[in-house]
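INFO batch 0412 | record 1 of 1 | parsing
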Amino acid sequence: MLIWLVELANSFQIFNLFRYITFRTGAALFTSALIVFLFGPRMIASLRIRQGKGQPIRADGPQTHFKKAGTPTMGGLMILTGIVGGSLLWADLSNVYVVATLLVTLGFGAIGFYDDYLKVTKQTEKGFSGKARLAIEFVIAGIAVYFMMRVSIANSPVGSTLGTSVAFPFFKDLLLNLGIFFILFGGFVIVAAGNAVNLTDGLDGLAIVPVMIAAASFGVIAYLAGNAVFAGYLQINFVPGTGELAVILGAVIGAGLGFLWFNAPPAAIFMGDTGSLALGGLIGSVAVATKHEIVMAIIGGLFVMETLSVIIQVGFFKMTGRRVFLMAPIHHHFEKLGWTESQVVIRFWIIAVGLAMLGLSTLKLR
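INFO prediction complete | emitting tokens
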């Protein structure tokens, strides 16, 4: 919104700052953090009153979790307020990638909110119908991918298939053209990312820090992929317009820092599906826009590990009647082994940092 101030640059040189994505990214980070810090306490107090018993605690979960009973959920509302506020102020709202990413973020956030609402009001772990939820997620993601695909095609040289192709890390010219089926692939990536972060959100601070790490990593990728000079130097695919996504990712980091202040152990609030689905969908959308879907599986490897642990646990149990892990997702397995919650969280953060560094290294290894 404030990008229009660039028009005043001829009269006041200071407004030239608004031309720079780096400046607006930093401003979005600061703005979103400030919004969460200012309005967070009021929102937590309101949610605590409205929810009463708070988020239901799994009966088969670690015993240490029962002391968290009564903690309000839907903290994702705080995060979304910060992200949307920071993005509306500092991002270029005429950019299709920005609009599509915000569509997915708010759409997934709404689905998560309804899921959290059902869980809180019914005091059960079962919320929104899984099949119905996935179907709606795919529709939202598919619409976003379609528009991102169209603008990518329009901005690419004649004859280029980049808009409908999957790019592979380590290979500068290797593209797999999926044609119209790229919508299905991109939709799958976004939905998978949303639900992977959702599965990871089970301990205080466990999900939000890896999300911020992934956001910082993709902020770098979006900025580089959207800059012809840097993209050419690194021999990655140049996708005009995606640099603007760095502003949204800056807002994610700021809102995440603000939320972590209140979510640090012992958590005053949980992000719930409202936040985890929205944040995962956002990261997935940026990965699709920048043509780094496969790299996302590396940077977000922690989320992949959590998801695979659930798939393996459920599949193996159906086939043999036995369990591979003491409890899934895998962070609960380590709790059952005797790790404290803080040990699990901090060690998983370390893993997330290592995977992010590995993912970023693919930018140069061509």
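INFO post-check: The beta strands are 165-167, 175-177.
INFO record closed
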